[in-house]
Every structure is written in C-alpha cells, then in structure tokens.
Automatic annotation (TrEMBL):
It comes from Paenibacillus flagellatus. Transmembrane segments: none annotated. PANTHER family: ARABINOSE-BINDING PROTEIN-RELATED (PTHR43649), OSMOPROTECTIVE COMPOUNDS-BINDING PROTEIN GGTB (PTHR43649:SF29). Keywords: Signal, Transport. Belongs to the bacterial solute-binding protein 1 family. Residues 1-39 form the signal peptide. This is ABC transporter substrate-binding protein.
Amino acid sequence: MPRRHRRGTTDTILHGGFNMKKMVCLAAAICLTAGIVSACGGKPSADGGTNAGKSGSAKNTTLTHLTWRVPDTGKGFEKVVGKYEADHPGVKIDVKNVASDQYSNTLKTRLLGGDPPDIMTLGPGTDYTEAARQGYLLDLTNDPMLANIQPSALEAAKVDGKVYGIPYDLVSLVVLYNKKIFKDNGLSVPTNYDEMIRLCETLKAKGIVPVAYGIKDNYVTQFLPYMIAPMAVYAKNSNWDRDLAAGKAKFNSPEWKRVFGVPFEFQQKGFLTPNALGVGDQQSVEMFARGEAAMTFTGTWATSVAKAANPDLQVGMFPFPGNRQGEDNWMNLSLGQILSVSAKSKSLEASKAYVQAWTATEYAQLWTDEAKTMPSVKGVKLAADPAVDELAPYLSKLKSWQFANVGWPAGVSDVYMKKFQEAFAGRATLDDVLHAMDEAATKAAAAAK
C-alpha cells in the first residue's frame, strides 16, 4: 500500500498476490467485525488469544522492532509495548521508527548487512515477498498464533502458499471531511465525480479551500489516483496487472489518463492547497484538522492524527467518488501492516512470543482503540471512532480492490512519484508521467526474465 501509514512506498506494496476473492473476503471480515455481515470470519479462540501475551519470553532480553508506523497510530505502540513489557519483566522492546520514505532502503540495508531487526513491520508487497523468498523471515504457517487472525487476512498475506508474518490491520484510502463545514454550508457527501466537482466549486466560491493537499512527501501523490483506479481500471479488467507484465497493456492509455489526470484537474481548478509541493503529509492533515480546508485525501489511519491536532474536530470519511453518473463506485482496501520475525534473530523464541502477543485479543483491542485501524484479529471491535463507523456502510455495499501498485513491477511506483511531482511543478506532462511508468515496467519485466 502506499506507505505513511503505509503511508508508503517505495515498493512496499507491489506484487501482493491479492485477487478479487481475497479482497471481497477482507471487506466481509471488516463488516463482520462491525456487526454488518457474517461471512469470511470465524469465532475467536476460546481464550481470545490472551494467553499468547504471557508465554515464551526470556529474561533480560532486548528486542528491536523496526517500523514506520509510530507517528500515525496515536499511542498504539506505547500502549501495546508498555503492556507487553509490564507482562514480561526483563524483556525490553526497542521500537525504532524510520521515516516512511526511507523505510524500504533502511530495511534492505540492514537485511543485506547482516543486522536484521528482531521484528519488522512490512506491507503486503515486494519487500515482504522478497524478504520471505530470500529466507529473511520466519515461516509461521503452522504456528498456533495464527489461529486468532481472520482467515481472509491470512490468505492475503501468503507468499507461495506460506505465511511469514501476522497481517495486522486493514486500511483504506479515503476522503476525510469536516462535518461542521459541510453542515454550516448545507453540503452533502458526493456520490459521483460530477457531484464532487460541484462540491469543490461551491466551497471555493465561499472562500473555503476544498482540499488540504500536500505532496512534499512523495508517497502522498499515490493517495488520490489509487482511490480512483479500482473503479476506472480494475473493475473493467481484473487482469490488468498481468496484461502489463505480459506487454499487453500500458499506463499510457485512456483509463490511466483518467486516473492520474484527476489531481491535475483539481490543481487547475484551484481546489487544492496552494504550494502543495511545499506541504508535508502530516502538515496537510493538520491544516484540515484546524479548519483551513474542508477535506483532505488520506487514509483511515489519519483520523488519530487529525484528532490530535484538533480534539474538537467533527470528522467524517467517504470513498472518493471517481465514478461518473451511472457507474458503480469501488473503494480500495489493503492490509495495513504485517508483523514478521527475523529468521536470523538472535532471540528467536522471545521475538516469536512478542509477535504472538499482538495476536491476543486484548493486545489487538489496545492497538485498534489507539490506531483507529480496522482489525484483522478475531474478537476485536472497531475503535469507537464515528468517522470509521461512517465507512462501514460502504464496506458492505461497494466492491473493493487493493492499492493500485500492489500488482505493478518493482520500481514503477518510485518512478511515478518522482515524475508526478515534476509534472505538478510544471516540468513534465501527464503523458511524460505515464511514458516513464511504461518504461519502468518494461525494464522490470526484462530484468525478471
């Protein structure tokens, strides 16, 4: 997925091995947790997995947990790690947070340099897949700790039929909106693209910035297009990624011009924050939270960031309506993170015990309540977050697809992000962006032969 939560990217979420059945089941699993449907789930283990957090630890041990998730998960790490250390005297968890745009390279450097973290956070893509295939991750396929994870989430986390980490939460890219601004101006949530354009025009005419948008952090360039791609591309051809790999499809095409053209249309119409290239991801969410814009493009994880900036914020969320009138909208859905144990950890059993604790219902509930994510652990309730609750009806009625770059060849999303920023600055065109992506895909395909 895009990373910075996740939010992400370099190539964290490429080659995820997702398919339509997996995505439908992921959505159903979330709805089950929310009490909407009863499919693709399963009852939690009798003890809720709580015993998992109190076994298998070693005294006087320090474990390193490498992640990028600390800034946007509230007090999630503080609560979970604090409880684990309290439950396991003598065990210390050293959480090392790395900026999301540096995470992939940092992780690869440590793995290749023989200095792996004991536990690492990964996304369901290239980093995870390659690390598993190269023997860096412990195979957990038959480990009892998996029993408390939703089966659909486990299926989405498989590499060549095996599980190398705990698929921990589920996320979606969304539009956050200021409910007070909408109410005060008699506005409603748009249901298609034309309504979205009219909404932004109305806000602009009232002197309100429609969208807080900051792409100084290049991964944010993915958020808006990846909300549109499920409906515009994959709903029409679920095998598009395979066609790209086979040389039968290209990014320089009408459907992808539609997807990637939307941010530039918003820029041209004056719907976005001025000087977006100078505004960072968290800064744009905080600008939204302070009421400096009516909406922002981000992910379900960002409500905790927004509420931290303004506890009184009345925030809602909806999937971006990229659909034209008469078209069905789709939403995106992906695993938020996978917790993996290094196969080369010097404290292997202690590392496994720590990861196992995260699968316990009581630990997972702590995380969910703080991070405001959608849980994949059985028996965990959605966080008491009205904004997340507002997304539940969409999960029950809309089809979904993973983040667009899950199935792209390695390196394509990096090329896209760099070229997108150039185009946004006026130094390249949309055609240049798409042509560069096609060149990167062709290069990756040749290297794979």
